[in-house]
Structure formats: C-alpha cells, structure tokens
What does this fold into?
Amino acid sequence: MEYYFDDREPRKRWWILITAVIVVMAVIIVGGYIAWRALREDDATKETAKPTQLPRMANLPPKKETPKPVAPPYMPDAPLLEQVREVMRKGIDPVSAVALAKSLPDKPERADAAFILLEYAAEAGHAEAALIVGRYFDPTYAGDCGTIIKDPPAAYEWYQAALSGGQPAENHLSDLKRWVEKEAAQGSVAARELLSSWQ
It folds into this structure.
C-alpha cells in the first residue's frame, strides 16, 4: 500500500491557526477600543458635571461674591473706629458702652467712634447716652460732633428721651427751641413742623 503524503495540509493548518490568531487579536483590539471610548465618554461627562468651584473644607461656608468697596465716610486710617466696631461686634452692654465712649482717646475720629457707642446705649434706653446723642444732632451745640449731620427733630426726640429718663435736658431743650423759633421765623417749613409738635 502506498502512502500518500500531502504536504499542503500542514501549511493549511498553519494558515488556519494564523488566521484564527489574527481574528482573535482583531476582536481584542476592537473590543478594547470600544471599551476605551466608553470610559473616555464617561470621564468627559463627569468633567462637565463637576462644580465650577474647587471643593472647600466642610466647615467653611461657600465664598460669596464681594461687592465693590464703597469709600467710607471717614479716613481709612481711623483705627479707633475699627476698634469700636470690633467691640460692638463682640457685644457690649449699654452702661459699658457709655463708659467706653467717655474714655476714648482724643483723636480726630473720636467723636464718630463715641457716637456709635452712645447711640447704641441710647437706643437701649440709657438716659445719659440719649442726652449726649441729642447734642450730636443739636445745631446749637458747639462741641465736636464729628461727621454727624445736625438734625433738630432728632435732637428734640433724644432730649425728650433723656428728660423722661431723669437727665437734666431742660436747658438743651430751651436752647434748641429758641433756635427752631428763629428758623421758623425765617421761613423754615421743617422748623414750623417741629414747633407744632413741641410739647
């Protein structure tokens, strides 16, 4: 019996094996590419969903937009005013506020700093503070009133509050009344209105 040897068969097997390897490699490459694209799209979606601000520490509030600074009515180098504002932020009782207002050092911004303390105490019902605040608004008062604008009706109200609290405000009220009568005689409508409500 003659044995027939076909030398094409091993080559055929090799080609089948190589083709199978190429197909498997192509499947792996295409599958990897598809998976890579899917992950990349996922990352892009996450990036667009991120907040615009960086994450902050848990105990800090989010940063707010700060408005443009407005020039203060006092000189920026007024540390006495800043000290008084800090005391007010921390909290102070009316009696201590009056004592602190009286003890402020003699500086250009002293009157404004004292007014902050005195107005707070006067609004809390401190009669002596009401008397001093009345002077700030009184156009007849010649003392230092800082940047406080004269306001006769406000002066009248504070003097009345001081008087009802037992402070001697009669002389201040009579000086103010003479000034208001003079203004009313010169045609001031505001002075006439104040006189009509004077007690």
